[in-house]
Amino acid sequence: MTNKLLILFIIAIFFIPFLIEIINLRMLEILKNIIECLKVKRNGVFKISVFKIIYYICLPNIITMLIMLHLNPKIENDFLGSITTILVLIVGFLLNLIFTINSLIEKNAENIRKKGALRILYDLIIYCVLISFALLMISIMLFFTKSNILIYILFTLGIHFFFVFVYLFHTSVQILKISTK
User: Fold this and answer.
1) Whole-angstrom distance, CA of residue 128 vs CA of residue 42
2) pLDDT tens-digit readout, 110-143
3) Quick check: pTM over 0.85?
């Protein structure tokens, strides 16, 4: 038991610089922009879309509850190792995208519409990095304890991450359409 606690302590120390960087980010503004993405224009007024809230928040929870109730998944260390490897690759990909988007924002300072779209894309990527980081931490914690609550959170965040990643792709396509106009 003490070896597991020592390894967990070393991992926690390893991620402290990353947590400090997260605190230094403009997290409230990013979360506010993510909530703005849930709004739809109706009759000239932006209102929060009930469909988007169900799709991005409720649907991942419902799918996870169905998985947990009917399949009762058993998480093995091999599965966790695969998930951890995939998450590390996704985080690396997303961090590379952040640097690319930053350079595009600086290059397109005069085009306000495109700059706004790129800012939304940047915030979505930061949000995906945060979700990936949370998934990575949960999968590392599952190496030490096989808690059903952690498995539920892992599945819910994973499904939510997939839906947000699809929205990220959709937003990228919209920016490409702006670029060609």
Assistant:
1) 28
2) 777 777 777 777 777 877 777 777 777 777 777 7
3) no
